[in-house]
Amino acid sequence: MSSQAAKLNEGIDLAGKNVAISGGTQGIGAATGIRFAQAGASVFVIGRNEELGNKVVEELKKAGKGGKAEFIKADLSLVSSVKTLADQLKQKTGGELHYLITTQGGPPNGTFSLTSEDHESHFAIQVLSRFGLAYLLAQSGTLKDTWVTICAPGGEKSAPPDLEDLELKNEEERQRYLPMRIIKAGTRDGAVMDGLVSQFSSAFPSLRAVHAFPGYVHTSAASNQSFPRPLVLLQSLFGPLLARTIGNTPTTYAEVPFYLAANPQARGKGLEYTNEKLKPLGAPSWTKDQPELRKKLWEKMAAMIQ
Ligand SMILES: NC(=O)c1ccc[n+]([C@@H]2O[C@H](COP(=O)([O-])OP(=O)(O)OC[C@H]3O[C@@H](n4cnc5c(N)ncnc54)[C@H](OP(=O)(O)O)[C@@H]3O)[C@@H](O)[C@H]2O)c1
Q1: Which of 126, 247, 257, 267 has a beta carbon 3.0–4.6 Å from 105's, enabling a disulfide?
Q2: How far apart are CA 218 and CA 254, in angstroms?
Q3: C-alpha distance across the termini of the chain, in Å
Q4: How far apart are CA 13 and CA 124, in angstroms?
Q5: Counting beta carbons within 10 angstroms of the beta carbon of residue 293, is it exposed (0 to 12), middle (13 to 18) or buried (19 or more)?
Q6: Which pLDDT belongs to residue 176?
Q7: InterPro entries given for it (predicted)?
Q8: Hey, whose CA ends up nearest to atom 2 of ligand 1?
Q9: Mean pLDDT of 48-76
């Protein structure tokens, strides 16, 4: 439970530590940034919306204990922006970024579009940009400790992703019934992230990667992802109740990424795949049984970032 994480996080001092929160202008990312600021960390908030980003920075300054607070504008649907951002973070942190929390994007809505760099748009934000930031920051030696990525993991019994069509670009996929496209894209997101998280510590043995599933957190994600109006309405009506009962508000959930990244007690507990109750979800069996597949996935993603 997040209240459990809140208790465990009491008194943790992060003065002198730097954290970057991509997708930090609202929702889970903004609340997580505030939690890090409260512990004295310097927080870099990343997103496209300047007005929201500056508002979050004001909140960070109010909540903070002397750490820096800065908004960096970036559209992470583009690999070129991911690369620029990785360079900016290296410079702004003096090459010392302790924690990277990636929350940009949202659930797939089943639409298909391509970025100007020819990547499928949802994949580019939800999967590629998260990997790209972690990969580039780790490779340059800027990332010093932990990458936490927040999106639904596939789970122990999940199937590996289809390496031949990671972006679900082929015509057959695009012709599927909308709910099927949403399910396929969501499953793919989780599976790819699982594979990358499992390979991360092999590629960078001194660093940690954690794939965190937030359960239900009441945010504007459904409307931000242009879900149909009745669904958005239902979520705005019942979401607050869900958040109070079985889920979380962004503020209560923020204790979880904070715990996973920065609380020494979270280490060595098998929490590389974890839910909002801090329950270890276990690595998908394919990541253990088929290490060559996970390596190929890594190489494919790395080639997209070069
Ligand atoms: N909320 C939940 O219950 C839940 C459940 C399962 C998984 N998740 C996952 O958790 C993550 C965070 O969810 P949330 O509810 O906090 O979502 P949210 O409130 O909609 O926030 C999404 C963030 O992503 C940023 N973003 C979107 N597109 C971007 C782009 N092209 N470039 C840079 N930043 C971009 C947005 O900033 P700008 O608009 O400023 O760019 C915003 O700060 C999502 O990936 C979601 O799929 C959430």
Answers
A1: 126
A2: 12
A3: 39
A4: 35
A5: middle
A6: 87
A7: NAD(P)-bd_dom_sf, SDR_fam, Sec_Metab_Biosynth_Oxidored
A8: 217
A9: 97
**Helix intervals (H) in the chain:** 2-9, 27-38, 50-63, 79-92, 121-123, 129-139, 171-174, 178-203, 221-224, 229-245, 250-253, 255-262, 285-289, 291-305
Mutate to test the pocket of ligand 1, among 77, 109, 131, 151 (most ligand atoms within 8 A of CB): 151
* Atom number of ligand 1 nearest to Cα 106: 47
Distance 121 CA to ligand 1 centre (A): 14
**Domain spans, the chain:** 2-300
1 confidence band (pLDDT: 50, 70, 90): low
Q: How many whole angstroms separate alpha carbon 217 and alpha carbon 262? A: 21
Among 2, 21, 22, 25, which is best to mutate for testing ligand 1, by the most ligand atoms less than 8 A from CB? Answer: 25
Q: How far is the CA of 292 from the centre of ligand 1 (A)?
A: 31
pLDDT tens digits, 234-251: 999 999 999 999 999 999
49 CA: nearest ligand 1 atom: 40
CA of residue 286 to ligand 1 center, whole Å: 28
Q: Return the residue whose CA atom lies nearest to atom 45 of ligand 1.
A: 106
- Is the CATH code 3.40.50.720 the one for domain 2-300? yes
Distance of CA 240 to the CA centre of its chain: 23
Residues 72-96 have pLDDT tens digits of 999 999 999 999 999 999 999 999 9
Instruction: For residue 160, count other CB atoms closer than 10 A to its CB.
Output: 20
Handedness of CA 139, 140, 144, 147 (dihedral sign): negative
Question: Residue with structure tokens 């396929």?
Answer: 184
Q: Confirm if 53 and 33 have CB atoms less than 8 A apart.
A: no
What is the pLDDT, as a whole number, of residue 261? Answer: 98
**How many angstroms separate the alpha carbon of residue 32 from the centre of ligand 1?**
12
C-alpha 47 to ligand 1 mean position (Å):
9
